[in-house]
Fold these 2 entries.
Entry 1:
Amino acid sequence: MGRIVLEKVTKKFEHVEVIPPLDLTIEEGEFTVFVGPSGCGKSTLLRLIAGLEDVTSGSICIDGRETTSLPPAQRGLAMVFQSYALYPHMTVRKNIAFPLKMAKMDQAEIDRRVTTAADVLNLTDYLDRRPGQLSGGQRQRVAIGRAIVREPSAFLFDEPLSNLDAALRVGMRLEISELHKRLKTTMIYVTHDQVEAMTMADKIVVLQAGFIEQVGSPLELYRAPCNRFVAGFIGSPKMNFIEGDEAAKQGAHAIGVRPEHIKVSATEGAWKGVISVSEHLGSDTFFHVHDTGLAETITVRVDGEVSFDHGDTVYLTPRDDMIHRFDANGLRI
Amino acid sequence: MARAVSFNRKTVNTALAWAIGLLIFFPILWTILTSFKTEGQAIADPPIFLMFDWTLENYAIVQERSDYLKFLTNSVIIAGGSTLLGILVAVPAAWSMAFVPSKRTKDILLWMLSTKMLPAVGVLYPIYLIFIELGLLDTKIGLVVVLMLINLPIIVWMLYTYFKEIPSEILEAARMDGASLRSEILYVLTPMAIPGIASTILLNFILAWNEAFWTLNLTAAQAAPLTAFIASYSSPEGLFYAKLSAASTMAIAPILVLGWFSQKQLVRGLTFGAVK
């Protein structure tokens, strides 16, 4: 259950094409993340799958069933929204039970499922509270509870963690990943945060301006980005791009080196520069190196113990096997 | 120093507010006082403010001459009926305008409101003829329909403003959860908009209660509400101010009491959306 196939799907708002013809297959049980910058069409794509927006052309099949023109409720999907979208006038119990009530399930079964969901999500003590009396994390759990009781063929998450603070976000990220491991249901997750994408996904779909730039596992995208956009988007801090002579030496228009693939030395190396800013994270340190003559700034990630300071002259050496080469169109060579 | 200035300003503002409030309330107060005077005292020159012989005889005479309860019942049925019917029509209309707007939604809203700017007398003749044709003249159902239509633009506007405040994601969540359009409006939208709907009902009940043009022109004896009850004391046998005032007081008393107890809702209804 839960295989979703999009064929030549397009979406226009008025005369603006936000999704150009797009093909995508999401396999059963897969955790797929749509990632991209704001306005890249990732949420629109999710809403097309959900049925909250109509496609302009193309088809969407869920479990081999043509669902393109079916209303959202008949697609067998459940969605968790960014704003949680809980019903503020209903208690947690009623919120979770709402989809079951709409499905006209008998009360005993509704009670059983709500109790189980509340148990799984640690909400048992809050069942008689209203959403207004809960914290952000608890609200998010209620939203997830409302989605899981329906036992849908796939879950859709629309930036579900972006309203939470950083610490809570990491916790909820783990909870959602664990939920996926336990339920083994297809999940589609939209985010602009590449860390969420890398840590949670089985498969990442990188989008830009409605186009799919690349589809692959997190490590595939990290190791072999198909173009400069993906290379720059996946990985934190961002990949360094160098054009000009240095790139020409490698037979490319531009080369890319990730900050963690550059060695720093006080005495010798390929490129010379001056540290303008050093950021100490404890476990790691990021150096922003200027005056290399290669790019405005080259970011380097080193072990937290390495001690250079602002203003120090350093020598940088990229790892030969970790240099990505791109042509003038930005495509991987 | 700053505190002193703000204290002075506060005093001036309070005094000004009271002055304006009293100015607006004065005609009502004068009507109520006059209703307790004799006819002679009512037209005394110079007017007597409080030092008169308080009497209830006007109320007794008014009650004796006309059946207050019948007029009151008609008013309640007409104001209540037109408001409820209006709400039933306006909820789906405002829903579609707020959540599935088209390119012309704003124009339609403005056009609806613009009908309120038309002088009512401009359409009296056609409506009168239609009423004769349909046998609706001097019927409560006829007035319910007319007052509903007259107030519909305001009801739709108010509900539209309230609905716009409800995040559309919640309705989308309901759709994902399998709610039909009916369930979505009934179980999700309406309960969330109850404060707004209550304010709308209240304001429109008051508007319908006070409406005099249509109620006077389209009724005779059977369906006449309290506006006709007041009017019946104004003309034929010369003016009897004290009795007219007693009738007026009896007519406005119910709505005054209702307004007093629900002023919070009313203020919220009238200022909703003005500030976030």
Note: Chain A has a mean pLDDT of 91.
Entry 2:
Amino acid sequence: MKHLLRTLAADITGNVIRLLVRFLTAVRADWKGIEPVQKQRVYFANHTSNGDMPMIWSVLPPALRRETRPVAAADYWLKNKLRAFAGGEVFKAVLIDRRREVNDDPMAKILAAMEDGASLIIFPEGNRNMTEDPLLPFKAGLYNMGKARPDVDLVPTWVANLNEIMPKGEIIPLPLICTVTFGAPIHVHEDESMDDFLQRAADALADLRPREVKP
Amino acid sequence: MTPTIDLAMAGPTGSIIMLSLGGFAILLALTLFGEVLRHRQPKDAPNPVLETYMTRVESWWGMVALIALALLTGRFGVSLLFLFASFAAMREFLTLTAKNRADHISLALAFFVVLPLQYLFVWLGLHGIFTVFIPVYAFLLLPIVSALRGNATRFMTRVAETQWGLMITVFCVSHVPALMSLDLPGYGDRTVLLIAYLVIVVQLGDLLDFFFGRRIGRTRIAHSLSPKTWEGMACGVVSAAIIGGLLSGITPFGVPGAMLMAATASLVGMFGNLVFAAIKKDRGVKDWSHLIPGQGGFVDQLDSVIFAAPIFYHLTRYLWAA
């Protein structure tokens, strides 16, 4: 019973978050390189704000959203009960411990989630990008995932405008229009080196960036 | 018996219902006309002009229904409807303007304080406040908030573009519901009809400009900006004047006055459309957003009304108000 209530609460919270995000930012999905169909995928995205993940999650159609789990930092999502509820039950995140002293095998958790058939949302830069560059260098995770599961589509996913909607350190989000662009999927080629692949993945992602307008 | 006399005798509610029914009848005719043309079009070669026309007509169905509903609920409903329209329009506008982190608070104030306050003043009918609130107070105070963050990079561009967004999407748009607060002798509680009148003459003028421009348009007004032609615009303005004259019964202007007011509003609106075309061209976008299916955004939909509303408001006030 208690479990049922919590699931219900998580469902409702999820819908409230989705509606709020939609009302505030009128977020739009641009399915440029793929169709929104049920297929196991890893959406790898640029990371400029804590709003990135809810934004991508909100634009996925319900059937896809149910199968999709974000990979997120345990230290952030387990900080208090509310976050733990949101991270664990609303978003059903795969929580990764980023602290060096903890001997946690993130890749094992990620692969287990993929084994269960889940699609994932990951931010291969590892940290929020505070620089003027479009992307930080990618961490190895994406390569390892592509190597372990060559059957899964790796989909570059560009979230535009979020650093203006909710810059780090600000409390009030601005209601500007956010666009999430899904590009053509990539895979790790047979004898491709990790560096080559990560560069190719970063290029595929950066290509989705809308044309900058700097008068 | 002409429709002019009919409308003059009805109260505002009767007139609103009649106008809405008239609007729906026109839309039905326009829809049927488009469907017939579409039927004749070969399947493999859709006509882009026809499709543009049809999406325009389709979005008008929703607009007519929404505006009619708001007009029936009176000043509060109308203010609320345009508050949301302003919000959506400002969101599109400020998405494309120059800004950086130092503007975060001033932009948040623009959205969450300036916008609701402006509509509160409009709803309360405080003419002396809502006509200066954004051009004076917001104009001076928001740049102060941005300057406090101490970032000078493209400061002028940032504050100017933010102010422009506020003026266009909040200040100008709010002059549509503001029409209801005008005190026009002998016109009583029927000021709500001025909104219907303004929207009808401007939008129909636009539609006929588009129609005639495609048919007989030769001379582009601003070649690199927009397909608008002088011929199309002239036909649109004349049509707006005729429609305005026919609707004079719902206005306090009299037939010649109504024709002149309609022509002025329509003309200003069309040039406004040109200004928006220039902004979009500069920012490299085709539409302001994707929010109205097949139509672009709220600014695309409102554009000529945005320019026409303040001029129409002030002319009405100077020439006819008590």
Note: Chain A touches chain B through 15 residues (CB under 8 Å).
